[in-house]
């Protein structure tokens, strides 16, 4: 008998609760509410919700918001949302202590955002590239990462969280 957790469509999906960085916890443990998948938001709603999650130290959840925008939005904006999703996953891995994966994904996201104009969505892509490259360098150097303290600003503040 198959006892794997399933979603409403019958696909395998763990029902274990997760922490703020998306790590599975033991069944019955308290966790944070999962980000619903497949939500279609306006670009402004996407930015607002992702920034809220980043500021709360939940980059894994912000990545899911960006991924929804990437998959449901216009093809012309796909590179922007994909790059932002990669930055959020990079921050997630770095905060989990996975320096190699964190730095790699931060750089991949930065490369994907290089030359992208996010101004129509209020996103400072160039500032986020600088933020990601700087954080990747610090992670490579052994810095520990607090996801909330390192959360980037998506808007015109140059990517820094301060």
Can you tell me about this structure?
The chain is mainly α and 162 residues long. It is 48% helix and 0% strand. It has five helices and no strands. Helix 3 runs antiparallel to helix 4 and helix 4 packs antiparallel against helix 5. 41% of the residues are buried.
Strand content: under 5%
Q: Give the number of helices.
A: 5
The Rg value, from CA coordinates, equals 16 Å
Our measurement of the CA-to-CA distance between the termini, rounded to an integer number of angstroms, reads 52 Å
DSSP strand tally? 0
Q: Percent of residues in helical segments?
A: 40-55%
How would you summarize this macromolecular structure in one to three sentences?
48% of the residues lie in helices and 0% in strands.
What descriptive keywords fit this protein?
single chain, 162 residues, mainly alpha, 5 helices, 0% strand, globular
